[in-house]
């Protein structure tokens, strides 16, 4: 029963284990998840320090990792809290966050499952944080939140990469959401991303108020803006030139980097 | 780590049910401020989640049988001011009161129990503690002075 949660803990925060392995009863930093599934839950609880060591020693390479399997958790609302052994501890050990490089080796099903494992872990940490604020105590190991957030962000980037690759191969479209270059009222050209509407644009009053063209009376303003920009650029360039000449005066042998 | 704004597809009558893969919503289980009935669990949810969203979330991800969900939006105060006298807004959040089905009850556990902090023999923590105690003892003045500080001569 607890294995799924410990699997969750390991999955969320495992990457490569470091040398010394002081394994607390709850969280192990481990690389290979396959061995976890082979252990029965009650065995894992009892022999956790030794078992973990015996798992860890032969496993060190990424290639030995197999597909991730997690059981459907049956703990319900207890999953919003840590394992009971960690209640009241000051430091809870956790491993390194997932890197994008590591996540790219995983299959889509694995990433999908991992997302939910990370989600549940984050929910647990947020609940713990709120409770610690309520009780006016320090939350044990708050760095776990950052680790989980970063892992989730990297997972999302990996999934997006795969989706773009697939889209490019199948349809040749670079972007998932269609868009176009448009000028707004102020004369700026920007990438407008299309939005879905139930009615066509010529029937949409709010859309028509937006005006994707530059009226004629805005031209003087655009010209003034351009002049200001050019003046600023010229000012900066002359400043750089002045600085360089002063330095050259003081240090004649100075080599100026090409910038 | 910002997440770009998600655009959900427009729903019109007859469209297939919207399914969300990898939801980016996080629920926080909180201790209720006021006394709640035994089957009620209190959550803080993101503002975009609806009652149906919360029900499906809990049922599918946590396998928790959900009876009824009631939500309200808690206004985050805009009263505090910083050193520049600018108003500081605390973020708004949605509170969901979830009633469990099948007669289940839930009581918020004590997540910070008092634990005996004595370190075991021969460990690093024990040595550290001993060292700290010795240091403190050394810093203390002579007890025969009766609490008088060192500033006073004699």
TrEMBL record, chain A:
The main location class comes to: mitochondrion
> Which residue stretches, if any, does this entry annotate as coiled coil?
none
Pfam families reported in the protein's UniProt record: MRP-L47
One MF term in GO for this entry? structural constituent of ribosome
InterPro entries documented for this protein: MRP-L47_sf, Ribosomal_uL29_mit
What is one GO biological process annotated to this record? mitochondrial translation
Q: What does the UniProt entry say about where the protein is found?
A: Mitochondrion
User: Which residue ranges are recorded for the region named Disordered?
Assistant: 233-259
Q: What Gene3D superfamilies does the entry give?
A: 6.10.330.20
Record key words, sorted = Mitochondrion, Ribonucleoprotein, Ribosomal protein
Q: Which positions carry the signal peptide feature in this UniProt record?
A: none
Has UniProt tagged this entry with the keyword Ribonucleoprotein? yes
Family assignment? Answer: Belongs to the universal ribosomal protein uL29 family.
Name used for this protein in its record: Large ribosomal subunit protein uL29m
State the organism named in the record.
Dissostichus eleginoides
UniProtKB/TrEMBL annotation, chain B:
Write out the ranges of the annotated region (Disordered).
112-154
Q: Where in the cell is it found?
A: Mitochondrion
GO annotation, biological process: mitochondrial translation
Q: Which UniProt keywords apply?
A: Mitochondrion, Ribonucleoprotein, Ribosomal protein
**Regions of compositional bias (Basic and acidic residues) in chain numbering:** 112-147
InterPro entries, from UniProt?
Answer: Nucleotide-bd_a/b_plait_sf (IPR012677), Ribosomal_uL23-like (IPR013025), Ribosomal_uL23/eL15/eS24_sf (IPR012678)
Q: Name one GO cellular component term.
A: mitochondrial large ribosomal subunit
Main location class: mitochondrion
Please name one Pfam family that this protein belongs to.
Ribosomal_L23
GO terms for MF: structural constituent of ribosome
> Per the similarity annotation, which family is this?
Belongs to the universal ribosomal protein uL23 family.
Q: What is this protein called?
A: Large ribosomal subunit protein uL23m
